[in-house]
Amino acid sequence: MDDARQPLPLTTVYNRLQPINSSPYAFLRALFFPEYPVGLLDVEKILPPGRDLTAVGICSFNNGVPEIKSCQDLPSFLSEMTKDKIIMDLTETTSVIFWGGVIMGCLSVGILGFAAVKAWNRWKLRHHEREQQQSPDEQRPEQHVVADETEDEYDIPDGALCVTVRLDRGT
Hints:
Helix content: 25-40%
Radius of gyration: 43 Å
Number of domains: 2
Number of helices: 2
Oligomer: single chain
Distance between the termini: 128 Å
Structural class: alpha+beta
Shape: elongated
């Protein structure tokens, strides 16, 4: 199973690091670029005898040897879990994803509703202000002037007095 992506409980039986030719340039590249290869790791792993595995994929026999291959819609993999455990894990994962989607959907609808109400209130306020500006004939609410504490309540504010000037020409 060369295309298996599921980790298996394999036991390492051979492990050897073959370093590449080292030079100051290679050292600096390895120091500043961690992905730069510094050697070739040769590892052999085996599956211990007596382990039960579940294979998922398309099963066929090639000269009496079973082969598991993936198809376009289903990747093949090996697992230590039984078929029932795999189904139970998939069910739990599906349930978590479903309820997470429901919660995120409700949260999104709430945020969109809040934004819509806020935009509607702003539109109503702007519309009301435009109506007031376009109809100056209507009486606007009078502004109340707050008098200073030192002024008497009978004092007339500046600019509110009418002054009549009388001119006499004879003298």
